[in-house]
Amino acid sequence: MKLHSIVSLMQVPPEQHDIVWLRKALQSAVTLELATLPPYLSAYWSIKDDQTEAGGLIHQVFMEEMLHMGLACNMLTTIGGQPKMTGQPKIAGQPIIPGEDFVPKYPGHLPGGVRPELTVYLAGFSKEIIEVFMQIEFPENGPVALTASQETYPTIGAFYTAILEAFRGLPEGSITGKGQITDSSFGIFAIEKFENVEMAIGTIKEQGEGTSKSPKSGEEMAHYYKFGEILNRHRLIENNGEWVYEGEAIHFPENEEVWPVAKVPKGGYKESHDFDVLYSNLLRQLEEVWEGTLELYEAVATMRYMGNSARELMEKPLPPDPKHPDGNDPGNYGPSFLWIPKEAS
Q1: Domains detected in the chain
Q2: How do residues 221-241 score in pLDDT, each as one tens digit?
Q3: What is the pTM of this model?
Q4: Cα–Cα distance between 144 and 334 in angstroms, integer?
């Protein structure tokens, strides 16, 4: 399976959005959802007390992103596809597709050409990284009652709208209900009929960007606005028909409250090797979960180990660098989230 550009997929005329197009689109959706996790996790793990309100908001977001990836996987398997996170073949004789074709790279752009002007990087919690997160979650039609949108690039929301319409046009019997994973702790449910598809895509879009009339998904703010609350240090509330960041104050962790994790450079750090092995194992395990050969809780356990490994790394200062803008204190290491083939682990 080849990873297809979301931009190129969106340029295909809607009348050609058949089941083959849909499988390609959903694989790209899986990879796109996966790409949001490393930057969100890096920021979260760098907060020394992750029980702070800001930490709690980031935690809510990445848990929902894992739900979104799970739902995208279920939508793919129900129409006969197989989610790939590494590109490694499972059947003898299949050609090897390099893992790096599926594993997102940092710093870099979101997979598939979504928000092409945005560079996503790995770093510790800061004002700058929260601004990046808001751009990742930018609503399809612009923020509700905050600014007007003149954007012309494909947003995540627009892409999922196209996926929903493609499902709507499938022949009867295309949604098989096969290969489904359910998990109540993440909220992952089976896709057995079109109504389940509508619910899944509605969940993904509303949790990410709210609705056309509200910044909320149910009783909670959507991702874009949760990050906005952190950035503006206040809850978002409705006032005279407009939504403003003038509610209850939110503490913004700074200075000694956060490990000073520097931007992870291209190619990462060799000191991150043990973490990267865990991350690569997680990707393999997620493939095995949707192949039906591994339980999801085993992959979740690996993610917990990753958190411990990342925090140990974040406590280590980088070597002094007199050429660094901050003098001899360039900050601390951070996890690289690099793909490590089994033979190199």
Answers
A1: 6-263 (1.20.1260.10)
A2: 889 999 999 999 999 998 888
A3: 0.88
A4: 35
